[in-house]
Amino acid sequence: MSKTLAVVLALGVCGGAGVAAFAYMKKPERAACVRIADLCGEKNGTKDDLDRCVEEVEQWRKVAGNEPVDKGIACVDDAKTCGEAMGCVAGAGMKGFQNVVDDFFKGLGKGLGGSSK
């Protein structure tokens, strides 16, 4: 009976670790970083490299907004080559930059006493 309990507990721990690992990898930012590394042949990346990539994507989301980042991640997910994935990143970056510039001019207009649309 105790052996059965030990096996059940071991399977529970392994299953819990598997669920945690799945949740860890399921994060869209993380999946996009892994996909780019895979498409571009980066086999020597470390967990720190992956974490840094995810942090950069999350920071860009804060600056540029959800729409360009979400579109970029979806594009990377569908990419078939490294070049295509890099194009996805560049396109999302340009769209995000456009959002930043638009917001800048909105703020400038408000600061100059213009309308507050």
Descriptive notes:
It contains five helices and no strands. By secondary structure, the chain is mainly alpha-helical. Helix content is 84%, strand content 0%. 12% of the residues are buried.
Task: Supply database-style keywords.
mainly alpha; 5 helices; 117 residues
Question: Order of SSEs, N→C?
Answer: HHHHH
Radius of gyration: 21 Å
Strand content: under 5%
Cα end-to-end separation:
70 Å
Give a short account of the largest sheet. Answer: none
Helix content: over 70%
Shape: elongated
Assembly level: single chain
Instruction: Please count the helical segments.
Output: 5
Which blocks of ≥5 consecutive residues have pLDDT under 50? 5-11, 16-24
Count all strands and give the number. Answer: 0
Secondary structure category = mainly alpha
In short:
The protein is an all-alpha fold and about 120 residues long. It has helices at about 1-25, 30-40, 45-65, 65-80, 80-110.
List the helices and strands and how they pair.
Elements: H1 2-26, H2 28-39, H3 47-64, H4 66-78, H5 82-111
